[in-house]
Design a protein that fits this description.
By secondary structure, this protein is mainly α. It has one domain: Up-down Bundle (Ferritin), CATH 1.20.1260. It is about 80% helix and about 0% strand. The protein contains six helices and no strands. The radius of gyration is 16 Å and the shape is elongated. The relative contact order is 0.15.
Length: about 150
């Protein structure tokens, strides 16, 4: 697995998150929730754009050769953070708003874990700082989700 592949995985995580929030925005009837999920989708799109740019910078020849790291990271490449949109939407069917928000919080936390691990494989300080900024924004997503859940 290369660093570029890991960045492409991060890109995929954000794209799946965007689809998830867009789909929720279309399904909810409450205008406040609709706007909330639309905002979250836009945030995920911004992160996807950043990871897209980063992935384009890296050559395919920077390999990760640690078996332990590869096994850990492989779990994330197989849909462990934001699963396929079809699976996510099956799960949310019939769930309460609070359950859906709690599910979203877990996915945002998983994103932070993956990005923290990804950062460990990056040597470029500028890229590491960009990942830190995305991690901070993911933390803000969690705070926003918690506040939305509590304000219901």
């Amino acid at each position: 697995m290369t660093v570029r592949e890991l960045l492409e995985t991060a890109l995929n995580i954000e794209e799946e998150g965007k689809k998830f929030y867009e789909t929720l925005a279309k399904k909810v009837k409450n205008e406040k929730y609709k706007e909330f999920f639309e905002k979250m989708a836009k945030e995920e799109e911004k992160h996807a754009a950043r990871f897209r740019c980063l992935a384009e910078k890296f050559e395919d020849d920077i390999y990760i050769d640690s078996d332990e790291a590869l096994l850990y990271l492989k779990n994330y490449t197989e849909g462990r953070v934001f699963p396929k949109i079809e699976d996510m939407m099956k799960w949310v069917e019939g769930k309460s708003f609070e359950d859906i928000v709690e599910y979203s919080i877990v996915m945002e936390k998983e994103s932070i874990i993956f990005y923290t691990e990804l950062k460990a494989w990056l040597r470029d300080e500028k890229t590491r700082k960009l990942i830190d900024a995305i991690i901070d924004e993911e933390r803000e997503h969690i705070r926003t989700l918690v506040l939305m859940k509590e304000s219901k």
